[in-house]
Amino acid sequence: MRAVDCVGALIRDEEHRVYLQRRTAERRLLPGIWDIVGGHLEAGETPEEALAWEVEEETGWKVRDIVRTVADWEWEWEGRVRREIDYLVTVDGDLTRPRLEPGKHDKSAWAGPDDLDLLMVNRTDGDRRLRDLVAHAVRSRFTDRLRLEPITGPNGVLPGHAPDLERLFADPWVSRWYDGSLSADQAADQAAKHQADWDRDGAGKWIAYDRTTGALAGRGGLSRIPADTPTAEAIAALAGPEWATDRLELGWALVETARGRGLATEIGRAGLDYAFNTLKASSVIAFTEQSNAASQAVMQRLGMRYAGEIRAEGWSIDASKVLPDAPFAVYVTDRAARAQEVGEVVSDAVRWAADQADIRGLAMVGSWARDVARMTSDLDVIVLTDVPERYLGEDDWLEVFGAVSVVRRQEWGPYLTEVRIQRASGLEVEVGITATAWAASDPVDPGTRRVVADGVRVLHDPEQLLAALVRVCTGPAADL
Fold this sequence. Notes:
Layout: E1 6-11, E2 18-23, E3 34-35, E4 37-40, H1 47-59, E5 62-77, E6 80-92, E7 105-111, H2 129-139, E8 141-142, E9 146-150, H3 162-170, H4 172-178, H5 184-201, E10 205-210, E11 216-224, H6 230-239, H7 241-246, E12 248-254, H8 263-278, E13 283-289, H9 293-301, E14 305-314, E15 323-334, H10 335-354, E16 359-365, H11 367-370, E17 379-385, H12 388-392, E18 405-412, E19 416-422, E20 428-435, H13 446-453, E21 456-460, H14 465-474
Parallel strand pairs: 1-6, 17-20
Antiparallel strand pairs: 1-4, 2-3, 2-7, 5-6, 8-9, 9-10, 10-11, 11-12, 13-15, 14-15, 16-17, 16-21, 18-19, 19-20
Helix pairs in contact: 3-5
Pfam family, one: NTP_transf_2
Domain N-acetyltransferase: 146-324
Organism: Kribbella karoonensis
């Protein structure tokens, strides 16, 4: 195999955008084009050493971690073939202030799904390979246990996912629900179609791999149901006009060895995050045959509500073959569904607090308390207790909020410690554990006043501690 000539760094920010920089017009190689960070290896350098050097030299940031090797490919310029390895990396440094290397780059940008055409500006050779590489990085996601790659055909940089689609549909469970397997040619056509869906719709399906072993786990993600079709019209009648704007459907399919482990929920959660945080959608549906109880259970764990039934081609519980008008269950998630979920969380929390002698108060704060929350808004709750160490020393009690994972812990001031948890639906609940002194009303702590002023709804207040605090922070004396 040819020795490695150069390396590239796919640096992503918290919004999954990739950092780009524009080569100056005076550069001999590809002047004026947008590029990723990278460069050639010096004699005796390893690719990893060259990567760390190029990132620091071109941006001022330092490589913290090499997440994975994304591409190993070759390109030619002026008759010379170069082998390049590109890595997805995390970096340390101020991502808002890259240090452009003088004479080499004159502008920087963060490219999201709508910015991929930057990679074609001044690209006189029409080569789309770098653009497709950045698209892959922008669209990829990681869950706790899965790596989700946007399905593509071979594009000169990546080998494509046709072989894995063929393997997926050869699985007996998957082929049962999709009425058959795929030949190699059919899988190649499917992969090319999925890539076209991503480029046309800004959304598409991922292939899912186990992050530890790399084994194929399944497929899932989003698709846009074509407008003005019987299926779209039937779903819109149930889900409402908000859904009809984006027509996003969430789905998943797992090989048998990956089933029963909660991985479909992880894929679904990633799809909802992409829909609401990246695409800014307002509503997403999922639908499956009424006989598919397993998929409906996943939809319910994701916080989706049952919207009704439509008829479409599929399996029926009382038929041995695919029917043209099988009954399908439609589930939807939108602000109404999320509000219902928040209401259920709050009700459970109030019942729990009432049974705990050391809980002195419970309040909802922030956007949900003000009734201005969006699908992506966190639920913020304050737990007032005389023994905060009890609740900071263990996590079992967080089950009352439906925690499937603890996202982070952070101290805010002398009293308040935030424990941020995530539910199966993707809803994050920020639980503020605080000593009773946080609610002191004479005087009021400045941090407490800011929280209360931003919106508060008292949920459990047996001794009226929170009521007194709210009166001081929001009543006439608050302006003094």
